[in-house]
Design goal:
Elements: E1 9-13, H1 17-29, E2 35-39, H2 42-50, E3 63-66, H3 75-84, E4 93-97, H4 102-110, E5 115-118, H5 123-140
Parallel strand pairs: 1-2, 1-3, 3-4, 4-5
């Protein structure tokens, strides 16, 4: 558990500015020290992850929070690309979405998502869920470097 002092870069892939803001507020509210980076669509996400274009100096995230319903390239496509990429597949991906559809849950796990979490609509519950995700994936489990 001494690794819990490490700061982890977290990539949030979220097109809804309100949900992105709530996630940022959750990080601030719980004094989560990890660095949150936000991109708004699937194409931008892959550019960040592959360090292309304006993201040439982007850090490699230790955790990805992925919405499914994204413009340009949806979250399912992003998840498939990440898990098919030899250099990216070890990054844990938590699908964080409003969809409760069994098809989305099953497909996400078939694409090797590490977890599937439905976004709570209640602000306080949303903040708590983000804290729990951070707690589990950054403090409890051992992540590859």
């Amino acid at each position: 558990m001494n690794d819990s002092l490490n700061v982890v870069d977290v990539l949030l892939i979220e097109d809804d500015p309100g949900d992105a803001l709530m996630t940022q507020e959750a990080f601030e509210h719980h004094k989560i020290r990890n660095q949150l980076h936000v991109v708004r669509d699937g194409v931008e996400a892959l550019e960040f992850l592959r360090r292309e274009g304006e993201y040439a100096d982007a850090p490699r995230p230790g955790l990805i929070l992925l919405d499914l319903n994204l413009p340009k390239m949806d979250g399912r496509e992003v998840l498939a690309e990440v898990k098919a990429d030899r250099d990216l597949r070890t990054i844990p991906v938590v699908v964080l979405t409003t969809s409760e559809a069994e098809e989305d849950i099953l497909r996400s796990y078939n694409l090797h998502a590490n977890a599937y979490v439905t976004k709570p609509v209640d602000f306080d519950r949303f903040i708590e869920v983000v804290r729990q995700i951070d707690d589990f994936f950054v403090t409890v489990v051992k992540l590859p470097r």
